[in-house]
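Every protein is a chain of amino acids, and every chain bends into a shape of its own. The protein below has been through that process, and both of its lines are reproduced in full.
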Amino acid sequence: MGNPQALIEKVRNHLKVKNAHLMAGRHIRKLAKMVVEKAPPATVPPIVFFNASTRLGGMSLNAGFALVTGWSLRLQGVPVVNFVCERGMTQCVLGTDRGEPPKTPPCKECVEQSDWTCSYSDQVRCGFAADAQLDEALEGLNLQDLCNFVWQDMPLGELVLPSARWILRRHHLSDDLTTLRILREYIRSGWSIARQFDAVLERFHPQSVVVFNGMQYPEACARWVARKRDLKAYSHEVGLRPLSAFFTEGDATAYPLDLPADFSLDAVETARLDEYLDKRFKGNFQMAGVKFWPEMSGLDPEFVTLTKRFAQVVPVFTNVIFDTSQPHANTLFEDMFVWLDEVLASARRHRETLFVIRAHPDETRKGKASEESVANWAARNKIEAEPNIKFISSEEYISSYDLIRMAKLVLVYNSTIGLEASILGAPVLAAGKSRYSPADVVWLPAKREAYLLHLEGMLSNPDIEIPQRFARNARRFLYYQLFRSSLSFAKFLEEDGVWQGYVKLKDFDLADLLPENSASLRVISEGLLKGGNFILKRGDV
C-alpha cells in the first residue's frame, strides 16, 4: 500500500499549492474588475497579447509582466486583446510528455489560470483545429524533413525546432519515434495557432503584438504571422535583476541593447555597480526566480597544487546547449560542442597549459537537466585521462571568479561570465555571439579559422595585451543591462512562495499602474505606443 505518511504529505502539499493559487487567482480577478471599471473609453487600435509557453497552473514572471502591462495600457485607454490558449495544442511546450504513448497536456489547470489572468478582458480563445492536408504531408517524414518543413511558405520546422530542443533538453535531436512525434505535433499545433492568430489580426486590426520570448513555438508562430502582415511584434523576457523584465522589438532571448557611445558611469552609478558585483562575485544572485548557487566555495588546496604544475591556467566556461539563447550564439561554430572539440584539440597541443572546463550550474537543475550535457561530452572524450584538463561538474560550487583571477586566458561560448571576466581584467576570447558582443568587451573573431588562429596565438605568447576599452566597456554594458534595460515589476509582483520562479500580485493602488507613477511602465508604454527603446532614463534608476 506504500507509505501512508508520504501519501498524506503529498495530499497536504497539493492542497497547499491549490489553495495558494486559488487565493492568488481571486486577487487577480478582484484587481481586473477594478481595472475595467476605471478604464477610459478606447480611442486607438488594440494591442494583442499572447503568452502560452511560460506557465501552467500558476503565474510565472513573464505571465505577470504581460498581465500588469496589459492593465496599465487599458487604464490609458489602449484596448488589449488577449489571445488565449484553450486546449489549442496537442502538445504545448511545458505540457509535453516524452513518454510513449504521451499524456495529454494539463489543460484543465492551465485554462483555469487563464480564466483568472484574463478576467474582464477582451479575449479570443484558441482551440486546436486539425488540417487534414497538413497531416497527410507530415506522414512518414524523417527528422531532417521535419526540421526543414515548410507549409504554405511558413517555415514551421524552423519555428518549432527551438522548442523541441528545449523540451528534449538537447541540441542534436535523435531520429526516434518520440522526437518525430513531438516535432509533428508542434508543427500541427503551430499551424493551428498561426491560422487562428491571423484571423484575430484580421478581425481587430491591432497596432502591434506582444508575445513572450518569441522563440518558443506558439509565440514564434504568432510573431511570424504578425511580421508577415508588417505589424510590429514585441517580445519580453526576464531581466537580470529580480522581478524585472526586458522588452524589445527584436529577439528578447538575444537581449539586443543599443548602448549610446557617449554613455559613461558617474560616481553614483559606479558605486551601484560595484555593490552589485560584490554580491555577484560571492554567488549571491538569481535569474528568473532561480538561485543557481546554493553556496560558493573557494579553490581547494589540491586544485591549487595542481595548477602549479602548469605554466598557465585557462578556464573554459560552457552553456546549457538547449537554451533558447543558443541559436543566436552559433555564428562561428555549428554549436557549442563543435567548439569544445576544438578546445580539446588545443589542449592536446598545449600540454603546458591547464584547461579547466566548467559545466554550467543550470545543466543539472532538477526537472530541467540536460540530456546532452558537457558532462556527457567530457565522459565521451575521456577527459579524465587528459593530464592537463580538469573538469568541474555543475554540482561543484567552486568560485568561477577565483578561476578567472588566476587565468592566463578565459574561453567562453556566449556566457555572461565573459563579460564579468573582462571587468575583472582577464583576457577573454569568445566563440559565440552574445548579448554583449556589440559592446566591444571581448575578442570575438569573425570567422572560425580566425578564432582558431587567435586562440593558438594567445596560448603560445607569454603575454596577452588587453585593450583598456574592454574592461571599461564591460562595466558600461553591464550597468546599462542591469539598471537601464531591466525594468522592475517589484512594485506589483512578489514570489508566490510555492513554486520557484512563480509570482503573485502584491496589493497596490490602480494609480500605480499609470505611466506617471511607474518608471518601468512609462518606458514600456512609450516603447509600445510611441516607438521608444524600452530603456529607463538616468534619473529613473
